[in-house]
Amino acid sequence: MELGQCEHLLLQRENGFLSIYFDRPHVRNAMNLEMVRELSRVLMAVSESDEIRAVILRGSGGHFCAGGDIKDMAAAADRSRHAEMGADEDPFFELNRAFGDLLCLTDRLPQVVIAVLEGNVLGGGFGLACVSDVALCHVEARFGLPETGLGIPPAQIAPFVVRRIGLTQARYLALTGLRFRGREALRLGLVHRVASDEAGLKAELEAVCEGIRHCGPQANSVTKRLMLQVGQVPLETLLDDAARAFSSCIRGEEGQEGTRAFSQKRKPIWAEPPPSS
Which residues form a coiled coil (predicted)? Predict the structure, then answer.
């Protein structure tokens, strides 16, 4: 799988896991439009690959992501002042909607998405945490939706926050700009595990990755797709789709290997440790 060169991301592949580090530490990994486009391009390539089983999102320099780059927004404002534009040429719309597309792409990625949250997890970083399948955080990670304090709404983020933690809590956080740390994120259901130090966070990540290795990649992909349809399609339609998916999987190569391995009391081939080089 060819991922190409990135200016704002660091990519590391190991045994079917792709770690993507946001790499703008001088602005605490705040996202500009170029970074959003790079991440979208990488995730699109991943979505079409059978080589990657999980994506790990994290930040370099001790921070996950401080949200949108305010300087990038200011540059968009400058462009709007110096040009007469139609609705489809609005740089604010382009910047904001591109991030919404990224959230949708991340949310629907066939692979498991793990977010490792440290330092600032604000605005757009908060949104990315909300579309992860598994979220792990350092106890001192700092969460918040600061947009309304800047006089703007968390426009693309809000629907995913509501879905993650519920409307009541989402309103409270967005309309007050409250900042909080890891244990409160766990209580809200934003994250799944909290670690007190770097070693603990590494151990939590290793445990999650080990669990994923024991799950059939195709089964995980199908399961994720079915779960995302809950509330989006009628229940009877969803159950029909689920039954067809079950039949297809159990007849397929992965399902046959999994059931055969269970009968033979051994690990399926996807759970075997990779050969040492």
Answer: none
